[in-house]
């Protein structure tokens, strides 16, 4: 496990805190937009943002604890880092399941329409912000590896991909709300995103045999 310098740690904690603060209003704002639209994808997006916020808070807290307690042994550090990875995987999995449930439950009784523009505007802004954080976490991970930051990179890659799908689905509803194909585009968007989230969750939660072996040996350091 490579230690970060004070400057690197401060930069990463600042990025985590900024991401948390920017994401905090997400569930409230998206929830309001969901009320004004009949979009399945928009409702699923609200559920996703709520679960994501929990994972972001836990990631920030774990990173702060690791930096404030540098004397923690390797096993304890690894467990805290794994907690972050599992919370990110759990957030993506819960969001994926929620999106599948919503899509299936409304498959036979859903008609697109309503005020889609507010939701489209929010999703577009989310795509820009989440894409920027994905890029930022990618640079930080390349500069100096940190398991917590690497987990955030995966989360924001998934968030940006989801936002892209939401924007595409809502744009379709906005342009052609009465078209027969639009109904299926919106619901299909939820299904595609759900599958992507579930696969991403499985990849995140997977532990390499080498990491397990290293952790089982006393005195051996986890390489991250």
List the helices and strands and how they pair.
Elements: H1 6-23, H2 26-35, H3 40-68, H4 74-105, H5 117-143, H6 147-175, H7 180-205, H8 209-216
Structure description:
- Residues 208-224 have low confidence and may be disordered.
- The longest helix is centred in the middle third of the chain and has 32 residues, at 74-105.
- This protein has 224 residues and is mainly alpha-helical.
- Helix 4 (74-105) packs antiparallel against helix 7 (180-205).
- The chain has helices at 6-23, 26-35, 40-68, 74-105, 117-143, 147-175, 180-205, 209-216.
- It has a single domain (6-216), classed as Alpha-lytic protease prodomain-like.
- The protein is built from eight helices and no strands.
Question: What features would you highlight for this structure?
Answer:
single chain, 224 residues, mainly alpha, Alpha-lytic protease prodomain-like
Number of helices: 8
Q: Based on the structure given, which CATH architecture is correct? A: Up-down Bundle
H/E series, N to C?
HHHHHHHH
| Poorly predicted parts | 208-224
Structural class: mainly alpha
What overall geometry do the principal axes of the alpha carbons give?
elongated
- Assigned CATH superfamily: Cation efflux protein transmembrane domain
């Amino acid at each position: 496990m490579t230690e970060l310098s004070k400057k690197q740690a401060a930069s990463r904690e600042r990025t985590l805190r900024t991401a948390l603060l920017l994401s905090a209003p997400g569930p409230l704002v998206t929830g309001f937009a969901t009320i004004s639209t009949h979009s399945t994808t928009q409702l699923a997006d609200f559920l996703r943002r709520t679960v994501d916020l929990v994972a972001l808070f836990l990631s920030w807290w774990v990173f702060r604890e690791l930096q404030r307690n540098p004397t923690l042994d390797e096993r304890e550090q690894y467990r805290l880092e794994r907690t972050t990875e599992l919370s990110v995987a759990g957030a993506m999995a819960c969001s994926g399941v929620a999106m599948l449930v919503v899509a299936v439950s409304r498959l036979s009784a859903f008609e697109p329409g309503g005020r889609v523009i507010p939701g489209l505007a929010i999703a577009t802004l989310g795509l820009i912000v989440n894409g920027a954080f994905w890029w930022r976490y990618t640079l930080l991970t390349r500069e100096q590896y940190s398991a917590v930051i690497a987990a955030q990179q995966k989360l924001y890659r998934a968030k940006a991909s989801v936002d892209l799908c939401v924007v595409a689905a809502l744009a379709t509803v906005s342009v052609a709300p009465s078209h027969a194909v639009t109904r299926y585009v919106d619901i299909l968007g939820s299904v595609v995103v759900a599958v992507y989230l579930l696969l991403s969750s499985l990849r995140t939660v997977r532990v390499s045999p080498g990491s397990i072996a290293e952790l089982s040996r006393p005195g051996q350091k986890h390489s991250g």
